[in-house]
Q: What sequence folds into this?
């Protein structure tokens, strides 16, 4: 029996999936921005400590993102082929994988917080503060990973409303808790870390409860979990390339002083915020492209790709215009230290100019992930890291080019990926139909 026809994925359907996903994507980085603003007013050393600790935690966040993206693509193809129970079953096995990986990362984080913080930080005071923050913050990683798996299978079956309610509720609670614990309770950085753990743990528990309500077939199937690991290896390797770049960038920025790494933290968290907001259309692309190819409709998949690329470009230009207009005031929301603000002024032009190009890249990343063409993304991301980002930022360190040199590396990384994804989009090689790839 042929799979049921999928509804036409026009602009309205893309918006229906993208707008709830936008709120979900924005919730976590928005909480991080609130956290950065709260901690920033404790002084430059606590701000630098959160920069270092937050960069290490971003490793777990990226693992979660990869978990969500891989699960979305697999679930969407099965959903498009008319088999919703099989799509949900992908979520069950992904959740077991998420729990195991989350616990492993948590244990590693507790054990290695001190050495990692001292390796990344530019001075002992920052390293000690970052290590203390990390030892608490990593306790939320299992919940973070469970939430990522839950987001993945729900997006695959084109359900973006439940993730909206869960993620928004958990992060709003934690955003209100953060300033309360940091200031009135007097916990300082510890309060920031506890609020972080609270949001991630509540979110993970609620996604797990939703899965239990969806299906009673919760037994782990090792063969399926292993297959998911094998199928996700390209996304993991690609994610590792991202992490090598951002960890190196923070390490180099730290060598330019406390003010430099504080400014880098502000700009980088705003960049992550913009990236995840712009990824809303990419998530719609993952779901709709996967479903279209699962149903055997290559023309619809191609039409979705065209529409989301245009939407990503327009959204990124709008975001860049807002960032440019906010240049005189936005950095002051996060720090009142003059040296940090001076360094932020160095980074800001790079941040604004890169956004429109990044919008196209993020949209096409979503198209190719939804199509299961992640091997191509793996190769091009590694090449962009090895021959763009990493050489430039270490050259910036060797020649003392400051934060401008670090962000020139980010520019090269983005532009290499732009050329690669546009070239792939224009070819037919990613249009492989069927319930599995």
A:
């Amino acid at each position: 029996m042929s799979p049921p026809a999928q509804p036409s994925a026009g602009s309205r359907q893309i918006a229906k999936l993208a707008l709830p996903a936008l709120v979900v994507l924005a919730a976590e980085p928005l909480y991080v921005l609130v956290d950065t603003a709260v901690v920033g007013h404790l002084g430059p050393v606590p701000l630098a400590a959160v920069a270092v600790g937050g960069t290490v935690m971003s490793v777990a966040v990226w693992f979660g993102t990869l978990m969500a993206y891989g699960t979305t693509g697999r679930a969407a193809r099965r959903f498009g082929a008319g088999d919703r129970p099989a799509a949900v079953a992908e979520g069950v096995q992904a959740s077991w994988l998420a729990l195991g990986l989350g616990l492993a990362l948590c244990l590693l984080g507790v054990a290695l917080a001190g050495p990692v913080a001292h390796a990344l930080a530019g001075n002992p005071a920052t390293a000690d503060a970052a290590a203390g923050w990390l030892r608490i913050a990593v306790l939320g990683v299992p919940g973070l990973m469970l939430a990522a798996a839950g987001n993945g299978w729900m997006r695959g079956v084109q359900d973006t409303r439940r993730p909206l309610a869960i993620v928004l509720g958990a992060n709003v609670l934690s955003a209100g808790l953060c300033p309360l614990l940091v200031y009135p309770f007097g916990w300082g950085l510890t309060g920031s870390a506890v609020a972080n753990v609270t949001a991630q743990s509540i979110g993970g528990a609620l996604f797990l409860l939703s899965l239990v309500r969806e299906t009673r077939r919760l037994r782990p199937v090792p063969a399926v979990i292993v297959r998911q690991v094998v199928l996700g290896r390209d996304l993991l390797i690609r994610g590792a390339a991202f992490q090598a770049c951002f960890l190196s960038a923070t390490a180099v920025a730290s060598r330019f002083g406390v003010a430099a790494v504080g400014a880098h933290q502000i700009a980088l968290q705003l960049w992550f915020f913009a990236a995840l907001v712009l990824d809303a259309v990419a998530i719609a692309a993952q779901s709709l492209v996967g479903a279209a190819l699962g149903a055997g409709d290559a023309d619809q998949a191609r039409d979705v790709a065209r529409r989301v690329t245009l939407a990503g470009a327009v959204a990124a230009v709008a975001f860049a215009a807002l960032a440019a207009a906010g240049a005189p005031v936005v950095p002051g929301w996060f720090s009142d230290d003059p040296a940090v603000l001076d360094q932020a002024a160095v980074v800001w032009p790079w941040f604004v100019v890169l956004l429109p190009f990044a919008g196209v890249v993020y949209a096409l990343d979503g198209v190719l992930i939804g199509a299961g063409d992640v091997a191509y993304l793996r190769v091009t991301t590694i090449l962009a890291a090895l021959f763009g980002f990493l050489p430039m930022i270490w050259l910036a360190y060797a020649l003392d080019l400051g934060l401008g040199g670090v962000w020139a590396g980010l520019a090269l990384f983005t532009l290499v990926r732009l050329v690669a994804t546009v070239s792939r989009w224009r070819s037919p090689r990613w249009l492989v139909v069927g319930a599995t790839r």
